[in-house]
Amino acid sequence: MGSLTEFEVENWKEVPSLIYELETIQEPVVWENLFPHRPDFPIEVELGSGDGTFLMDYAQSNPDINVVGVERLMGRVTKTDRKSRRRGILNLRMVRLEAAYWTRYMIPPESVSAFHIYFPDPWPKRKHHKRRLISPGFPEILRPAAKLGGKIYLRTDHRDYFQQMEEVMNDAEGFERSVTPDVISEILTDFERDFLAQGIDTCRACYQKTH
User: Fold this and answer.
1) Cβ distance 60 to 28 under 8 Å?
2) What are the residue boundaries of the structural domains of the chain, listed by start?
3) Looking at the chain, which terminus has fewer C-beta neighbours within 10 angstroms, N or C?
4) 115 or 9, which is more confident?
């Protein structure tokens, strides 16, 4: 069940919401509860899915993957839900929660095949750098949640932040540098389209869990 029939697309408002309402934030989710009809499909997670541009295009292009978008702002969550149902995308779920908390506490051990982290808030002022998502200690949150061989995909337009991302991940135990496949690079976020239109390059990196 990765897509809707033509009739269902025309009547998308009758399709159940793709927003997963957490019953508790005290214990990990059960993936089968999010995707009861697709329990054996790989799980990939986008942390900070924004308006869902990448998430929806990626899910629609990969019907054999279960994709979860984690976003703190409810308006963005409901917008992605509405657009996804209108487009007939069923292999996608939205969760409203802070990304670091979700990753640390809500993901079952070694269950995520890939994390997508695109254009997180760069917090450009030095006094705010400690608020950046990709900072020392964050790989130790990612590693228990990722499967062996799982990928961490990163993108940003902020070169100072990208340098920090590389330093953090290069120094992290259990990860090594890898390559972002073209099939993923070619799917752009809304931010990325704007940046490219302005002639601003995107910095990208990929890391793989080795142990």
Assistant:
1) no
2) 6-209
3) C
4) 115
Is the domain covering 6-209 a CATH 3.40.50.150 domain?
yes
The answer to pTM > 0.85 is: yes
Distance CA 101, CA 88 (A): 30
User: In the β-sheet with 175-178, what is the strand arrangement from edge to edge?
Assistant: 92-96, 66-71, 43-47, 112-118, 146-156, 203-209, 175-178
Distance, CA of 120 to CA of 127 (rounded, Å): 17
Cα–Cα dist 145/138, whole Å: 12
- Positions marked catalytic: 121
Residue 176's DSSP bridge partners are 208
pLDDT digits (tens, 9 = 90+) for 110-128: 999 999 999 999 999 989 8
> Across 6-134, where does the E strand assignment appear?
43-47, 66-71, 92-96, 112-118
- Burial (CB < 10 A; 0-12, 13-18, 19+), residue 124, is exposed
Q: Which two tokens stand for residue 127?
A: 């006094």
The gap from C-alpha 101 to its chain's centroid, in whole angstroms, comes to 14
Report the candidate in 180, 163, 166, 116 with the shortest Cα–Cα distance to residue 142. Answer: 116
